[in-house]
Amino acid sequence: IASCLVGSEMCIRDRCGTVDPNEKEIQLANNQIQSWINSNNRTPDDDPVHILVAWHVISSSTGLGNIPDSQIQDAVEILNLRYNDIFNYYFTLDVITRHENDDWFVFEPDEQASQSSDEAQMRSSTATDPEHYYNIWSVLTEAENGYITLGWNYFPFSSAEDSYWQGTTINYTA
Q1: Alpha-carbon distance 92 to 53, whole Å?
Q2: Exposed/middle/buried for 150, CB within 10 Å: 0-12, 13-18, 19+?
Q3: CA–CA dist 66, 166 (Å, integer)
Q4: Closest Cα partner for 111 from 129, 76, 75, 137?
Q5: 26: part of which helix (H) or strand (E)?
Q6: Over the stretch 21-62, which tens digit does the pLDDT of each residue have?
Q7: Cβ 130 vs Cβ 166: under 8 Å
Q8: Coil, strand or helix: which one is 73?
Q9: β strands within 33-154, DSSP E
Q10: pTM metric for this prediction
Q11: How far is the CA of 26 from the CAs of 4, 32, 33, 41, 75, in angstroms?
Q12: Which of 56, 80, 96, 135 qualifies as a FRET site for 129, CA 20 to 30 Å off?
């Protein structure tokens, strides 16, 4: 997917910012997935799984990034469209928080998907009960070499279930 900025010669291409796993992490993930499949075999006929969503809007002091509730509700609806029929997962938007902070809002390329100090401070200060909520942070991710990172997660086995590293950071325009 490529989209060009209006009035600009630079074309911005989208990419996922999740860091590529090493061989050991791939094997660990594959083993955990296979173990889960062997013991769960989830189908749409299974009991529904209800996932509470806490959305954290991070904006600049000028208001950039302060997305409306309707945009957040639409994004959660897209999650439901993707996961209801196949997995019987239901996402419910339960919490919206808003934080004006220029340091947290702008993620330069070297800060993206790197557990940077700004991201650690942002997540640790704003996360809502990560063990019981799917936390999403919307920020501005800056482009590098014509690519813009739309968002990232960290692998669930790389931190405790109740860690603020559980969740997703996304570009507010995604």
Answers
A1: 6
A2: middle
A3: 23
A4: 137
A5: helix 23-40
A6: 788 888 887 887 778 677 766 566 678 999 999 999 999 999
A7: yes
A8: helix
A9: 49-59, 89-100, 106-107, 133-141, 147-153
A10: 0.78
A11: 34, 10, 10, 21, 29
A12: 80
